[in-house]
């Protein structure tokens, strides 16, 4: 009987795949012609002459209650009898298509915000959407409907980065609502296939169908702590809610026309954010007129009853969420419990119909149920993925994102330098390029590699010098075994080890992929296992190796170059074991831990071949594995770094953070870090100690920071001649850093967050009051202010004019200013406009960004720039008594300059009383 069930299951899978291939290859192209027959057959949802809404309603009306509930969760199953293919809603595209194998990786979101360049964001988001469409249709043609293969993307994250300790702040566009809104709107339009001016693209370019769905998340009032996100209840003041936490979401809904909104885990005023009547009904739909769909964050519906304890049962939680406006459940609560809720009378089936019709409408608007030949976006060729032009754009974006915090004249460095020491734990670490929610770049360029490629013929000496953080078994500290010391079999002329890849965790059966890997140093994200280091592309034909539950055996011979005592090290995300000459020397197969590394010391003979075998399995989530060694006589890393510095003309120290220590709800803690957040904003102690020792050598030290957040680098500011912030700069980050270090590009990135002093007493992390936070409300002296960034040239500001000095609240004011490059180098300048209240009265923000333009000027070139603003939009505050926005009459200042702390020129105007 079991065999019969398995056979039936296999037939169902094959049927679904045939249906998918039919849709993808256009075999259903006759459906529009046969629309009347389709109607007669009872399938009006396939009639393309009808509106998407009509078709969706007709389809929903044919579903059973259980089918409806199942379609309201992220992994929606196929309904074969209705011709509906399965669909997985879960997809990510924070700074490139993520977790789906090979894709172009742009700077992390915080780095894109640092560009202050909306036109550049337009290009980036359009490029991401091209790759997304191409990857989706390639998967669909192969009958694949898995996670990270769809058209609904859960990006951007537009939460306000209110506190530098939040590990997910790297995913945002910074601390300012206005900057967040402008960058977010651009990102949404590029993903959804809308022109930068907001108009629909011509039908010939896909205008009838939306290109992708973007998702504004996490709605609302969410920015850590990560450890408490499933339980805490935040009660912001009405002023903070409406002036800080909601404006970017309102802009993306009303101006950006974002199609989807994701709720948050936490409660707001006692209601779950993923089931809040206030947020999802009263504000989102009734006040802002949102027409799209809302989804829960993943397993947030479980939190409603299990953690928040708002209701007692899962069926009550499911009914509450749907009633209050959450149509799609990331998780399994809806499928299991909505039918029960309907039968218990907790919710009516008509309410499910309304919610599901929204979801089916969006699938139709994306062209999912129509012949591929009818959908222009389906014609995007797979060859666009990781195209050379995309790589060039990633490099330009990284160049524009780099912020020069300090320069005492040491930069740019001369390319004629005799010897350069590159030191630090993130100098040659691919993770330092990627941040989180990333794809797999074809050929990632670390900072070390970027510098070496920029200095052919120069002696560039590298020493890691220190671990990223104290107490972390850092598997990246020990050098990988290089290819010349490995061969796949005795007598082979190839270099490396034979890799056998299996579709299970047990190395069982026949391998689905066999290849020779030159080095064992891999880092795979949650998508298809794709080789970051060796740039081989997808792992086997048709992604033969799954993204989880796989194993690999590497075997061959180890060829030590000299006799002596070696330290062999293996490290992996999950289980591994290492054999030498048949003897098990390292075994962590059963006690696997995330990012574990272990080593063994052995006496080996030079010139002898040793049989070596490394076995590895991956369970779930991110995967990594490496095989490394220390040769006899190797200096300790710290001493090696100091020796390199003493013998060099200058030192570039590359350090800071990576996505290994800051990020989303992590399970590991280190000194200064807790669950992905930080408890200390200073540079990790391991790096600070090394940095001070390098400075003591007397050689000039340039600090390059990889980070997703602000760092308290007081000592570096006081002692080092130059400091760059590279963020997590994406696949060409190393090239971009080198471009700036050696003067091929003049830096012009700006800080989208305030950098505070290390000893600044910030408000409690779990306090959501904005007082004392961000440049808008911080009254102290920042280490580096919001908007700060230096250049290799200088700029003058002059001639500020307002077209009126007395206005009504709804009037538009135009400010005109002239900016001139008064230096000797061509460069970009980011011109920023801030507004500030001058009249005494209610407590307000210190000042607020209300305009910015990034312009390129040659030496001596001038340009007149125009900014417009409207008091009713740009000077509004929330009036708690009136329960709405208002504009105070009185005098205001317009201030224009290079940062919130470097305002060069100003003027005043008055807003009349209503």
From TrEMBL:
Q: Name one GO molecular function term.
A: hydrolase activity
User: Which SMART domains does the record cross-reference, listed alphabetically?
Assistant: Fn3_like, PA14
Q: Ranges for the PA14 domain?
A: 492-645
InterPro entries recorded: BXL, Fn3-like, GH, Glyco_hydro_3_C, Glyco_hydro_3_C_sf, Glyco_hydro_3_N, Glyco_hydro_3_N_sf, Ig-like_fold
Q: Does the keyword Signal apply?
A: yes
Which keywords are on file for this protein? Answer: Hydrolase, Signal
Is Signal included in the keywords of this UniProt record? Answer: yes
Which Pfam families does the record match to this protein? Fn3-like, Glyco_hydro_3, Glyco_hydro_3_C, PA14
| Superkingdom of source | Bacteria
Q: In which family does this protein belong, per the annotation?
A: Belongs to the glycosyl hydrolase 3 family.
- Which PANTHER family does the annotation name? BETA-D-XYLOSIDASE 5-RELATED, SUGAR HYDROLASE-RELATED
Descriptive protein name? Glycoside hydrolase family 3 C-terminal domain-containing protein
């Amino acid at each position: 009987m079991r065999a019969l069930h398995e056979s039936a299951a296999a037939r169902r899978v094959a049927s679904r795949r045939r249906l998918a291939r039919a849709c993808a290859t256009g075999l259903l192209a006759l459906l529009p012609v046969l629309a009347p027959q389709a109607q007669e057959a009872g399938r009006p949802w396939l009639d393309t002459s009808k509106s998407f809404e009509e078709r969706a309603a007709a389809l929903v009306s044919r579903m059973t209650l259980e089918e409806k509930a199942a379609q309201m969760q992220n992994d929606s199953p196929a309904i074969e009898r209705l011709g509906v293919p399965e669909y997985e809603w879960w997809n990510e595209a924070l700074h490139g298509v993520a977790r789906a194998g090979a894709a172009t990786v742009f700077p992390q979101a915080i780095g894109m915000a640092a560009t202050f360049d909306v036109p550049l964001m337009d290009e980036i988001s359009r490029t991401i959407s091209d790759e997304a469409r191409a990857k989706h249709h390639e998967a669909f043609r192969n009958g694949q409907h898995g996670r990270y293969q769809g058209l609904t993307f859960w990006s951007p994250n537009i939460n306000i980065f209110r506190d530098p300790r939040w590990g997910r702040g790297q995913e945002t566009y910074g601390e300012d609502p206005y900057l967040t809104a402008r960058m977010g709107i651009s990102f949404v339009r590029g993903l959804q296939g809308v022109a930068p001016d907001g108009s629909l693209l011509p039908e010939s370019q896909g205008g009838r169908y939306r290109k992708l769905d973007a998702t504004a998340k996490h709605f609302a009032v969410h920015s850590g702590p990560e450890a408490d996100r499933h339980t805490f209840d935040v009660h912001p003041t009405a002023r903070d809610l409406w002036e800080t936490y909601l404006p970017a979401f309102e802009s993306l809904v009303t101006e950006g026309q974002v199609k989807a909104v994701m709720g948050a885990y936490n409660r707001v005023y006692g209601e779950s954010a993923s089931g809040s009547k206030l947020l999802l009904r009263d504000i989102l739909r009734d006040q802002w007129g949102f027409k799209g769909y809302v989804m829960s964050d993943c397993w947030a519906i479980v939190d409603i009853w299990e953690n928040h304890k708002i209701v007692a049962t899962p069926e009550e939680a499911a009914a509450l969420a749907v009633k209050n406006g959450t149509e799609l459940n990331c998780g399994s609560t809806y499928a299991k419990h909505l039918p029960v809720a309907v039968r218990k009378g907790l919710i009516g089936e008509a309410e499910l119909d309304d919610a599901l019709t929204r979801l089916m409408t969006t699938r139709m608007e994306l062209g999912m149920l129509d012949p591929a030949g009818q959908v222009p976006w389906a014609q995007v060729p797979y060859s666009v993925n990781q195209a050379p032009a995309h790589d060039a754009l990633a490099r330009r974006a990284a160049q524009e994102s780099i912020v020069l915090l300090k320069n005492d004249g040491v930069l740019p460095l001369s390319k004629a330098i005799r010897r350069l020491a590159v030191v630090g734990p993130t100098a040659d670490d691919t993770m330092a390029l990627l941040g989180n929610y990333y794809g797999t770049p074809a050929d990632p360029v670390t900072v070390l590699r970027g510098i070496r490629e920029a200095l052919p013929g120069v002696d560039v000496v590298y020493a890691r010098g220190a671990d990223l953080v104290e107490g972390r078994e850092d598997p990246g500290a020990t050098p990988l075994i290089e290819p010349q010391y490995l061969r796949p079999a005795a007598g082979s002329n190839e270099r490396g080890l034979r890799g056998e890849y299996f579709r299970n965790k047990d190395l069982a059966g026949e391998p689905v992929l066999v290849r020779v890997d030159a080095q064992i140093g891999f880092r795979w994200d949650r998508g298809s296992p794709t080789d970051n280091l060796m740039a081989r592309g997808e792992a086997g034909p048709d992604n033969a190796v799954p993204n989880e539950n796989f194993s690999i055996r590497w075997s061959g011979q180890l060829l030590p170059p000299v006799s002596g005592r070696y330290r062999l090290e293996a490290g992996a995300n999950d289980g591994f074991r290492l054999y030498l000459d048949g003897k098990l020397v390292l075994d962590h197969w059963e006690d696997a831990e995330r990012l574990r590394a272990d080593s063994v010391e052995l006496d080996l003979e030079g010139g002898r071949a040793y049989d070596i075998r490394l076995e590895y399995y991956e369970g779930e989530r991110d995967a990594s594995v490496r095989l490394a060694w220390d040769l006899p006589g190797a200096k300790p890393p710290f001493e090696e770094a100091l020796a390199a510095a003493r013998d060099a003309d200058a030192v570039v120290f590359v350090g800071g953070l990576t996505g290994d220590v800051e990020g989303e709800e992590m399970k590991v803690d280190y000194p200064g870090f807790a669950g992905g957040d930080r408890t200390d904003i200073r540079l990790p102690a391991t790096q600070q100690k090394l940095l001070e020792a390098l400075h003591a050598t007397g050689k000039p030290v340039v600090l390059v920071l990889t980070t997703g957040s602000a760092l308290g680098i007081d000592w570096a500011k006081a002692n080092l001649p130059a400091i760059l912030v590279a963020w997590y700069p994406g696949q060409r980050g190393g090239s971009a850093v080198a471009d700036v270090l050696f003067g091929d590009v003049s830096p012009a990135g700006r800080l989208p967050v305030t950098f505070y002093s290390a000893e600044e007493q910030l408000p409690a992390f779990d306090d959501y009051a904005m007082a004392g936070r961000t440049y808008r409300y911080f009254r102290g002296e920042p280490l580096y202010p919001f908007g700060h960034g230096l250049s290799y040239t200088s700029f003058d500001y002059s001639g500020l004019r307002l077209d009126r000095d007395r206005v009504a609240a709804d009037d538009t004011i135009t400010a005109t200013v002239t900016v001139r490059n008064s230096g000797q180098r061509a460069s970009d300048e980011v011109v920023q406009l801030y507004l500030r209240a001058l009249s005494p009265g209610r407590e307000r923000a210190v000042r607020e960004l209300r305009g910015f333009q990034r312009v390129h000027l040659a030496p001596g070139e001038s340009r007149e720039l125009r900014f417009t603003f409207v008091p009713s939009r740009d000077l509004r505050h929330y009036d708690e008594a009136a329960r709405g926005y208002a504009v105070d009459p009185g005098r205001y200042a317009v201030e224009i300059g290079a940062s919130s702390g470097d305002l060069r020129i100003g003027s005043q105007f008055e807003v009349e009383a209503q």
